[in-house]
Predict the 3D structure of the following.
Amino acid sequence: MKSHPGGEEQTRRLIELAALPAGAAVLDMGAGAGETVELLRSLGFAARGIDLAPRSPAVEQGDLLRAPFPDGSFDAVISQCAFFVSGDQSGALREAYRLLKSGGKLLLSDVFFTPPEPPVRGAGFEILFSEDWTALWKEYYLEALWRGDAPCCDIPKGRSSYRLLIGRKEKQDGYL
Ligand SMILES: C[S@@+](CC[C@H](N)C(=O)[O-])C[C@H]1O[C@@H](n2cnc3c(N)ncnc32)[C@H](O)[C@@H]1O
């Protein structure tokens, strides 16, 4: 089963849009079964993944809200359909910011219950790209409900949107 709308096609799109340098160190936050970690490695990136409940040896056990890495450890962070599942999307964005080097990229696909720009910018990111995938998310979520394995049972009632987003940790003076 695909654990996020769009499956591998969506992952490849995020990676392509982010135009990461060869060999970049990338962390997948909420990596699940590790498909994205494996894909990134096959493309030559130094990828690691953490998840509360890893479903593959390619993924390490760890809480994305308190990731076990020092500040500025990664060139990029990717997260698909996991920040909102953590129950603290703003906290997850702040943790991604902490983990990135200055100028590092955030590759995010996630559900939002309010407009995404304020929390993403509020965490310190410049938004380089944003694409609305809400129509596909609705289809995906209805199918998951139908199968009885929706990704999260605590989805608030009301409008939600699904966004693909590339952000950049704002550069600090004299660096990069
Ligand atoms: C819908 S799945 C997406 C998995 C993967 N990103 C993918 O797209 O295939 C959400 C994942 O987030 C993980 N997760 C939720 N809260 C987390 C937390 N606080 N720290 C780490 N992982 C978390 C879950 O265990 C689950 O594997």
